[in-house]
């Protein structure tokens, strides 16, 4: 009984509940607020890790960026983790200009995220 | 400088104006309009920087200069291209504002986890010249100049 419980715990540690949010297009303030709400929904559904996949996001402005930072704070305060992957060249430029590379953990793509965070082999 | 060698093929001066309303939703249209000016002799990185600065200039006009103004008050965006530089002018009908003073009061290091207040810093770090001047009796002009000859050496 006890060992079964332990196994379950280990399984949970190895494969925490990951939810993916994948917005599209231009992430301005209002679009990024929608993303923020989606991330909140993930947390309420018990996500321990939220991956924000930005592969279909062409452009982010500073208010969109502000909302993402705000989302990160919410995720952190609920004890979960937020990761970002697959950023476009414009988003990379914006992240560099605003030192977001020091705030967000950014993976090159979904595969890199899976390898490093989900430990999927 | 070698990247500029083909610039002779580019029209020496090219200017266009786009008029939009006081509406943040116009940003997508502005950005795709702006992409038509992308010069062949400039790296995509420099172009994306200019595009980022333009977005900040426009959203600033809507959020700050035109705060509390109805959506039909126009904002004009004027782009002037030459082989050596890009000039962006954003004309609004807001109250006078001292940008130079504002830039002086911005903290050196912005709080990394601030949820706003990055717009001016972004524009300031991208363009080579940033100025906001009163024109006519009721308009302001935000001028941003990107000097391609300086950017190439970065």
Task: Give an account of the 3D structure.
The complex is a heterodimer of chains A (121) and B (154). By secondary structure, chain A is an alpha/beta fold. Chain A has a single domain, classed as STAS domain (Transcription Regulator spoIIAA), CATH 3.30.750. Chain A contains 5 helices and 6 strands. Chain A is globular, with a radius of gyration of 15 Å. Chain B is an alpha+beta fold. Chain B has 5 helices and 5 strands. In chain B, a hairpin with a 3-residue loop joins strand 4 and strand 5. The model of chain B has no long low-confidence stretch (mean pLDDT 90). Chains A and B meet through helix 3 and helix 4 of A and helix 1, helix 2 and helix 4 of B.
CATH fold call of chain A: Transcription Regulator spoIIAA
Beta-strand proportion of chain A: 15-25%
**So how many helices of chain A?**
5
Q: Major beta sheet of chain A, specifics?
A: 4 strands, parallel
Structural class of chain A: alpha/beta
Tally of discrete structural domains of chain A = 1
Mean pLDDT of chain B: 90
Percent helix range of chain A: 40-55%
Class by SSE composition of chain B: alpha+beta
CATH architecture of chain A: 2-Layer Sandwich
- Note the overall shape of chain B: globular
CATH topology of chain B: Heat Shock Protein 90
- The percent of residues in helical segments of chain B reads 25-40%
Order of strands across the biggest sheet of chain A? Answer: 1-3-5-6
Quick overview:
By secondary structure, chain A is an alpha/beta fold. Helices cover 52% and strands 20% of the residues of chain A.
Write the SSE topology.
The complex is a heterodimer of chains A (121) and B (154).
Chain A: H1 2-14, E1 18-21, E2 25-27, H2 29-44, E3 49-53, E4 57-60, H3 62-77, E5 81-85, H4 89-97, E6 105-107, H5 110-118
Parallel strand pairs in A: 1-3, 2-4, 3-5, 5-6
Helix pairs in contact in A: 2-3
Chain B: E1 14-20, H1 27-35, H2 44-65, E2 75-81, E3 85-92, H3 99-105, H4 119-126, E4 129-135, E5 139-147, H5 148-151
Antiparallel strand pairs in B: 1-2, 2-3, 3-5, 4-5
Helix pairs in contact in B: 1-2, 2-4
